[in-house]
Amino acid sequence: xxxxxxxxxxxxxxxxxxIWKRSFHSDSTDDFGLLCQNEAFLKQATSVTMSSDKVDPxxxxxxxxxxxxxxxxYVRKQSTFREHVTADGSSGFKAEKGRxxxxxxxxxxxxxxxxxxxxxKGLEDVISFTVVDWLLGDGGWNFTDKKPGCTLDPIxxxxxxxxxxxxxxxxxxxxxxxxVLYDKTKGTIVNNESSEIIRMFNTAFNEFCATxxxxxxxxxxxxxRDKIDEVNDxxxxxxxxxxxxxxxxxxxxxxxxxxxxxxxxLDKLEGILEKSxxxxxxxxxxxxxxxxxxxxxxxxxxxxxxxxxxxxxxxYPNIWAYVREIYQTSGVAETVNQEHIQKHxxxxxxxxxxxxxxxxxxxINYDEPHGREKVGCGKAQKRKPSTDTSEQ
Length: 392
Known about the structure:
The protein has 392 residues and is mainly alpha-helical. The protein is built from twelve helices and four strands, in the order H-H-E-H-E-H-E-E-H-H-H-H-H-H-H-H. It has helices at residues 2-22, 39-45, 109-120, 161-168, 194-203, 212-216, 225-240, 242-247, 252-275, 286-305, 317-327, 338-348, and strands at 100-104, 128-131, 180-183, 188-191. Strands 2-1-3-4 form a four-stranded mixed sheet, sandwiched between helices. Strand 3 (180-183) and strand 4 (188-191) form a beta hairpin. The termini are far apart.
């Protein structure tokens, strides 16, 4: 009987696993992506017995469907790997040229933050990176060189990102997400929380910045930290994650609440940017980087795919000019890949777009003159040199 039950379960599992896998979505605080079936669950699934224990696909750790509350609201969970790189190595992870590697998706707004910070700080020759396939299908994030902009894993020759997680922790059973900051020396994941990774890039690697100007660039200056933290506290839940709350809502009430939050705070943002060149004054900070990665995806994806269609970013004069200014900042445009962005969302989220049809537009010119020099005090303030060599 046990053999028969196991055979029946395995047949059912094989038939339905593609549905379960395609329904997974990361819910870590600042990461995103679908959770692939990990080895721990596969072992559990194929060792079913006659006991009262039952394997319920809706209770698999990391299933995006388990991140939806009873009221139909999408709720993210926390990231897992939270070590830090420091300039002096006191954390156990010393900042060194060539030691660390980023695993990212061009589609992911959380991973995009790390790519922008890496560019702004001139760390291209210090921290290498790998770009996963834009399509998130069976098995989760995978590596390929058959698609434009995607790359193979140069460290382990892994086929799936889950292999990197399991090398770091063989017992890992959480979400498989990007970005991932990997230590090639110790052979482990340092951190998969984007908000912490960008702070490491901001100061810990200053010794290795390409230019003196990039070394002095401080995206989290002490005199602005209170303002930056205050902005992050309302931008993240209402705009960064707000679009996901609207897009993954499973009830009208949850959607109505989420989309209301999105546009109330976009209206608030429009008012701020009417008087201020950037979110906290005349200097670009991490608050702007964190917001930009959502805004650059808004019209191409979130308006239609996530039903955030009350207004577009191009309908907000100040926000639209602000987006263009950041896009035109040296190095930033190189980190934006609209093909990956649009194909990822529209081909991977089959619970939203069952036929995976990718829309033809919109056609947006981010290179139009922005005119933001006239806002606020005009010329951007000169930054104080960074003296902080540890992560914040």
